[in-house]
Amino acid sequence: MNGQPHGPKRRSQKPIDWQKVQRVLVIRLRSIGDTVLSTPSLIALRRFLPDARIDILLEDWVAPLLENFEQIDNVIAVGKGDAERVKAAWKIRRNRYDVVFNLHGGTTATLLARASGARYRIGYADYQYSFLYNRKYSTSSEFWNAERTHSAEQQLALLGYAGVPVSDRPRSSLTVSESARRTVANRFAFKKDYALIHPASLFHTKQWSAENFAGIVKELAARGYESVAVASKPESAVLESLAELAGPSVTIAYDLSLPEITALASDAKLFVGNDSGIAHIAAAVNVPTVVIFGSSNRDHWRPWTDAPNEIVFNSFDCQPCPGYECAVYGEPRCILGISVEQVIKAIDKVLAKKEKGEPQPAF
Fold first, then answer.
1. If both were cysteines, with which of 18, 124, 193, 237 could 269 make a disulfide (CB 3.0 to 4.6 Å apart)?
2. Are 70 and 90 in contact (CB under 8 A)?
3. Is residue 12 in a domain?
């Protein structure tokens, strides 16, 4: 079987005998969003190999996000530092995987893929140290016959090249932990429908102001919604600023675990936030989603979901950019110039789609 919908035939290689594959490891290091957007590939793999053992290797701080994910058998967590990486390498070596997919081409991921000793070590030809793979493929753009591809499509294409059916492009998905759901229910006593707000971002070129988010919270309060804003503990200053500006209309939390944020998102009626991993969590539990984009790549990072969603942005020729600084204007006009009115308009659109039950157009 071949999941490749488009593109020229690959250079001749002996096909993988998938009937003999019993153990598969997927490596996806890095962030929350990267982890969530690996779930379409995990869904495709489980569908193709219902009886195989499918494990995923994640960084330890994000690993809890997939601990209850129904499409995998085990989450293997790797910490930072050489000792932790050596420990993880020995563990995956002992597991004797038949196939390893590396969905991220960084040096650490590549070395761990090689250390697995798997018969088939699969990655893209442009990965660092690509000679350590024995199955190397071209680009996701060539696979999908498209100039621009989403992060989820980039990962799915690697599976597709290897023979896993992916042409239907599964959407991102997360499983809500019942224990996390109980914790959230005990902590938050919402009296009416609520919106989940995420006002933080790693880069200032992607962070809409707390003042603007306060305007959204007040607008939602006028419509009968409560709001709860989440961020990590190092980002607590953003939440404190929002609480000061929005008053009792918002509840803030910066000490929730990733499973608890997932549970909180799953019962929200709306998500509004910056382009971030939390936005991808909300999309993965099918919440109507409004995501505000600044410097980052909208085609690559927009919500990957069938739930109603809108992205809000102002176009600039310099987009996308690395985001560390605004090298063109000195200040990130792409995010600073987005108005509260633009975001309210997007909220109206997603809520109207939800009310009408309209399916989200295919990507």
1. 193
2. no
3. no
Instruction: Look at residue 60 and give its three-state secondary structure.
Output: coil
What is the Cα–Cα distance from 60 to 72, expressed in whole angstroms? 17
CATH number at residue 97: 3.40.50.2000
Domain coverage including residue 157: 18-162
What the block records as the tokens of 176 is 């809500």
- Is residue 10 a part of any domain in this protein? no
Q: For 341, what's the count of Cα atoms within 13 Å in the CB-facing half-sphere?
A: 1
- Residues 200, 285 within the same domain: yes
Work out how many domains the chain is built from and give that number.
Answer: 2
Pairing of strands 226-230, 194-198: parallel
Per the domain annotation, does 3 fall within a domain?
no
Q: CA distances (Å), 215 to each of 61, 194, 203, 246, in order?
A: 33, 16, 21, 7
Domain closes at, from 115, 137, 162: 162
- The secondary structure of residue 324, as a DSSP letter, is S
Any idea what DSSP says for residue 98? S
**Residue pair 124/160 in contact by the 8 Å Cβ criterion:** no
The whole-model pTM stands at 0.94
Whole-number Å distance between alpha carbons of 99 and 106: 18
Tell me the pLDDT tens digit for each residue of 293-319: 999 999 999 999 999 999 999 999 999
The answer as to whether 141 is a domain residue is yes
Per-residue model confidence as pLDDT tens digits over 144-164: 999 999 999 999 999 999 999
Report strand pairing: 74-78 vs 53-59: parallel
Q: Which long-range contacts (CB under 8 A, 24 or more apart) does 347-353 make?
A: 347/216, 347/219, 347/220, 347/270, 347/272, 347/290, 347/310, 349/308, 349/310, 350/270, 350/288, 350/289, 350/290, 350/308, 350/309, 350/310, 351/270, 351/288, 351/308, 353/288, 353/308
